[in-house]
Each structure stands twice: as structure tokens, then as C-alpha cells.
Write a structure and sequence with these properties.
10% of the residues are buried. A 4-stranded mixed beta sheet has the order 5-6-7-8, with helices on one face. A two-stranded antiparallel ribbon has the order 1-2. Helix 3 crosses helix 4. The protein is of the alpha+beta class. The longest helix has 25 residues. Strand 1 and strand 2 form a beta hairpin.
Length: 186
């Protein structure tokens, strides 16, 4: 005979669980608590003369936890993205000189609350194709000749143009109607 059946308890009932019959006290409820992998869970009901008392400190702690749980993801999403990076993906000496003059001009004229990527594709015949990307979209594209006499002037003009393009795109995004779709779905 199974040891669970051998010693009956007062006010005890036997209920089937995953591994056989389990003893349960009379004041338990099935389906709550933690009973392990195979058993049925149980938790005790308060006795009729017991009252459930909520202390103000416990209530305050619960409210604080609820507040933090609800408001942390929104704040974390805003803090996830770091701004102010200008990534240098240039290859040649011309590309590096363009990047240095471009980034110096942008840092001097704006607060850099955005990220940019400067890419270069060198070509022996035409010079270098330089592109500047903002949020994975090309905002500036130009071939730079192999001579570097006008490189600083070109980079400064590119920085001013890119800054204007970014301001225009941010303004357009603010004025865009997105009641039905998210911005990236449009």
C-alpha cells in the first residue's frame, strides 16, 4: 500500500496529482501557489476569524512598484538611442579629409541630437562617391574629385545642407498624421 494512503489525517482529503494522490488540508484551494513540476498547486484560505490587513507601507510599496513597472519602458525607450554620433565609413585619404571637415562643421553649428553615417565608394576614374545617411536614408550624395583644393568648402556646404535636411525631416515627421499607422509603416 502507498505511504500516502497509510496515515489519514483529520480534515484531510486526497486529491489526484501528477504523481499519485496527495494529501490536502481542508482549508486549501486548488490551482494557486507552487507545488512543483508534477503536483497540483495549493494555497490556504484565511480562516473565518482571520482578517486580511493591508498596511499603508505595503500599499505604498505595491503602488510604487506598479508605477515603476508602467513608466520604466517608455523612459527606457527614450534613453535607448544615443545621439551625437557621426560614423566614419570612409576608405581613402580624400574620404577621411571630407569626414573631418564635415564633422568639424556640424559640431560647430548644431547640437548633434541625431546620428549620421558618412560612407565612401572610391573610384579611380571619377574620384570618390561620398554619401551621408540619416536614419538609413541618404541625405547627401556627391562625387569628390581626386584633387583636394576645394574639399573643405565642399564639406562645409555638405554639413549645412545635411543639417537643413535633418531639420526639415524632423518637422515633417511632427506634422505627419499617424493615427492609423506607425511612422515606419508609412
Amino acid at each position: 500500500m502507498n505511504s500516502l494512503h497509510a496515515a489519514p489525517f483529520s480534515k484531510a482529503c486526497q486529491a489526484p496529482c501528477g504523481s499519485g494522490l496527495a494529501r490536502e488540508e481542508a482549508n486549501t484551494v486548488y490551482g494557486t501557489g507552487n507545488a512543483g513540476v508534477r503536483g497540483q498547486a495549493r494555497s490556504h484560505r484565511p480562516l473565518p476569524n482571520q482578517q486580511v490587513v493591508f498596511s499603508p507601507v505595503k500599499s505604498l510599496v505595491v503602488l510604487l512598484c506598479l508605477y515603476l513597472a508602467l513608466h520604466t519602458p517608455a523612459r527606457a525607450a527614450m534613453e535607448d538611442e544615443m545621439a551625437g554620433f557621426i560614423v566614419d565609413n570612409t576608405i581613402s585619404h580624400i574620404g577621411h579629409d571630407f569626414y573631418n571637415a564635415f564633422s568639424d562643421r556640424l559640431r560647430a553649428t548644431s547640437e548633434l541630437n541625431f546620428n549620421l553615417v558618412v560612407r565612401e565608394r572610391p573610384d579611380a576614374r571619377w574620384g570618390s562617391l561620398v554619401t551621408v545617411e540619416y536614419e538609413r536614408e541618404v541625405v547627401y550624395r556627391r562625387f569628390l574629385a581626386p584633387n583636394t583644393t576645394q574639399l573643405t568648402i565642399e564639406a562645409n556646404a555638405a554639413a549645412d545642407l545635411v543639417r537643413q535636411q535633418i531639420v526639415q525631416r524632423k518637422l515633417q515627421r511632427l506634422l505627419q498624421d499617424t493615427t492609423d499607422l506607425e511612422r515606419d509603416e508609412l
